[in-house]
Predict the 3D structure of the following.
Amino acid sequence: MRICVIGAGYVGLATGVMFGKLGHKVVCADIDARRVNAVNWGELPFYEPPLEKELRRLIRNGAMRATDDVASSVRDSGVVFICVQTPSLRSGRIDVGPVKAAAVAVGKALRGSRGYKVVVVKSTVVPSTTDSVLKPILERHSQKKSSRDFGLCMNPEFLQEGSALKDSMEPSRIVVGSEDRRAGRLLLSLYKPVNAPMISTDLRSAEMIKYASNVFLATKITYANEIANMCERFGIDSEPVLRAAGLDPRIGALFLRPGLGFGGSCLPKDVKALLDRARSEGYRSKLLSSILAVNESQPDEGIRMLEKELGDLRGKRIAVLGLAFKGGVDDVRETRAVPLITGLLARGARVVAFDPMAMENFIRIMPTIRYASSAGECLKGAEGCIVQADWPEFKKLGRKEFSKMKNRVIVDGRRFLDPEKVRRAGATYLGIGYGSRAP
Ligand SMILES: NC(=O)c1ccc[n+]([C@@H]2O[C@H](COP(=O)([O-])OP(=O)(O)OC[C@H]3O[C@@H](n4cnc5c(N)ncnc54)[C@H](O)[C@@H]3O)[C@@H](O)[C@H]2O)c1
């Protein structure tokens, strides 16, 4: 099958590589010519080494290529996946501009093309967008009728950045929403070699499944943060508390680690978008509002811990390790490093920051703070440090690096360091949800 993927971003390229690996011929169409060029050289526009290796192999073999010619790539394909971004507007509503523009381009290309094609919306869109916004655009510009002349499906993506290839090849489930059985069957047959439970449903349910999943994950993280914040005030270490709670199969251990809040391209935007969509129907979700409120104040927990140990932060050099929204990626969308550093600067601290991969992206957001070229350099002369992202290499920091600090106070903002190791290296360990009387 010839497959066209619109949008050579995280989801588009992971989808393209997955179908390329399954033996299909894939074209990724993007309006960003520089991105197209890089992909054709086998380079990803983001840090995801296993995916890049496979992309390079498929490009070399001629199984995959990128283009900025959306029209001809749609015309030459049997299935078209729309994978463009759906960012948040200031109001929290998703910006459907890019996905509408992609639908216009696909519709126009369908107009002149022959044969039955299936258009698949993979971008995350709030319930009713596919049938009430995108379908009319596709029909108007193609002058064809959905269900009769072309198929329309909604197929949400659940991959996590940092494990994009694995998550695409071994998904926990595949959800196919469709209006008509022919389109749904065709898409399900494409996924047949993938070993995962398949859920067939209608378009709106498929859209809602994505939000129901992400809102649960955001709720779970927020629960862990709230329990940890209380533990810390009660003088209890939250680690055994949450570990024991997570052993209950009804709760589960994953996503139960406290931290400075969730960021990234999906969770914050999806919670806001669902809150806005519910409000548009007259429903005010107290749960979703609370998740956002807790997440907003969570970076302050780290600053408060530092203040408790160091007093007034004015004029003090504070090292921030990790600027990506989590370790292992270079994505800085909605990273908690922004409110964290803004909070530190507001208290008069002198911030020095470092990230192994995300520095270039972060400098575009915060160009005026100081950056270090290594974790060791970042710590040099610092009176305190907050670890914001769980990069594995930060676990290796020890006496050699900590000894260069003016005051060895480490706030573990992701609860992933070994407290004993930090203490053995002569530093004071403080973690989110780590009580002062904790062992
Ligand atoms: N990143 C994730 O981890 C993830 C996971 C699951 C779902 N999603 C969802 O998938 C969607 C895509 O996310 P992403 O992170 O891959 O986005 P991205 O920003 O990484 O990539 C989007 C790409 O689409 C291109 N584009 C925009 N308009 C276009 C058009 N009209 N024609 C062709 N190309 C166009 C952009 O140039 C960009 O390369 C979003 O709705 C997101 O919420 C993302």
Notes: The two ends are 59 Å apart (CA to CA).
